[in-house]
Amino acid sequence: MIGNLNHIAIAVPDLEAAIKQYEKTFGAFVTSPTDLPQHGIRLAIVNLLNTKIELMTPLDNTSPIAKFLERNPVGGIHHLSYVVPDIIAARDQLKNAGIQVIGDGTPQMGYHDTRVLFFNPKDCLGVLIELQETKAAVQKDRVAVKSAVHTGHHSNKPSLEGVDGIGINVNVDFKSKTPKDNLEKN
Ligand code: CO
């Protein structure tokens, strides 16, 4: 049902410091911060080759992100956003599986003028899940994946164009990077 990962949203207490870390230390491209008063946040987007990281900070104490930062003062992963082709069908499928939709189940307009819904972390392995309806993106990716699979190794490389994530080989030793391990080393 779900398509690509659209973004990972990280709530941060200091957006300027977060942008600096991603730009200077991690060497990524980060957009200029934008205020989104209707969502109570200021947002900067880290554009990676295969996905985006949204760095967000509350505009004031009434923002829902403010409460998250009270529990996670250094910041933390706030939600994962997956693309779906039909948000109503996706909502009903998850509801039928016993996953609680947050709010009344009516999709709201998200940051990028797409319809979004959030699902209770208690029902989703402890992670807040956002579904974002992006019909064109999902259909384009499906076509690209299909052609990549069918052409296989003997194909010309351009057949993988548009398939997010393929060809990006990042070796990460997750075990040595857990917060616990890092704290022990410091
Ligand atoms: Co989001």
Describe the structure in your own words.
- The protein has five helices and nine strands, in the order βαββββαβαβββαα.
- It is α+β, with helices and mostly antiparallel strands.
- Residues 145-186 have low confidence and may be disordered.
- The protein has two domains: 5-133, 2,3-Dihydroxybiphenyl 1,2-Dioxygenase, domain 1 (Roll), CATH 3.10.180; 144-185, no CATH class.
- Helix content is 28%, strand content 25%.
- Strands 1, 2, 3, 4, 5, 6, 7, 8 and 9 form a nine-stranded mixed sheet that branches.
- The radius of gyration is 18 Å and the shape is globular.
- The relative contact order is 0.14.
- The longest helix is centred in the last third of the chain and has 17 residues, at 135-151.
- Cobalt (II) ion binds next to strand 1 and strand 6.
Number of domains: 2
Shape: globular
- Count all strands and give the number: 9
Query: What's the CATH topology name of the largest domain?
Result: 2,3-Dihydroxybiphenyl 1,2-Dioxygenase, domain 1
Considering the chains and any ligands shown, give keywords for the structure.
2 domains, binds cobalt (II) ion, single chain, 2,3-Dihydroxybiphenyl 1,2-Dioxygenase, domain 1, alpha+beta, disordered C terminus
